[in-house]
Design a protein that fits this description.
By secondary structure, the protein is mostly beta strands. It is built from 1 helix and 9 strands; from the N terminus they run H-E-E-E-E-E-E-E-E-E. It has a single domain (39-153), classed as Lipocalin, CATH 2.40.128.120. The chain has one helix at residues 2-24; strands spanning 43-50, 59-68, 72-82, 85-86, 92-101, 106-111, 122-129, 134-141, 144-153. The radius of gyration is 27 Å and the shape is elongated.
Length: 157
């Protein structure tokens, strides 16, 4: 009986000590800060890979996209694959692309200077993540959504 009282008393003392500690020093609340992005968040060269989604007749694309931090981007080593064959004009480039990154990290890029797909327009819409070191989203060509893309920072090229 004395042993039970001793165990219960010890548990009560520990409980009161922990409770008093929490009352005197409560655990601070953690508040998540929303991401803050801007066009300058995206600055550098990203390797972009974009698989098409139109079945066996779909287009796939890859390129090195260079963003200057002020709204202009260029593309080099632009490759397009159609039905498993590199398209005419692959290993092309363009220099007149524009892009923007909004405060919520949404990303839009556009060029009308592409000569690989048979039309000149390429639009990228997505979200910048990892402080602008990665972008994911959907790519569009002249005939609408063409598939998803993933672009990730590359070191020097």
């Amino acid at each position: 009986m004395k042993r039970k009282i001793y165990v219960l008393a010890t548990m009560l003392v520990v409980f009161v000590a922990v409770f008093a500690l929490l009352v005197v020093r409560p655990v601070p609340k953690v508040r998540a800060e929303p991401p803050s992005c801007s066009t300058s968040s995206l600055n550098g060269t990203l390797g972009l890979w974009a698989p098409g989604t139109k079945g066996v007749n779909g287009w796939d694309m890859s390129m090195l996209a260079t963003f200057d931090g002020s709204g202009t981007f260029t593309g080099s080593h632009v490759y397009a694959v159609h039905n498993g064959t590199a398209a005419r004009g692959s290993d092309g480039s363009f220099s007149s692309g524009t892009y923007s990154v909004d405060a919520d990290c949404s990303f839009t890029a556009r060029t009308n200077d592409l000569e690989v797909f048979g039309n000149r327009e390429l639009i990228l819409k997505g979200i910048a993540v990892r402080a602008g070191k990665e972008v994911v989203g959907t790519w569009y060509s002249g005939d609408g959504p063409s598939g998803t893309f993933h672009a990730e920072n590359v070191t020097s090229y």
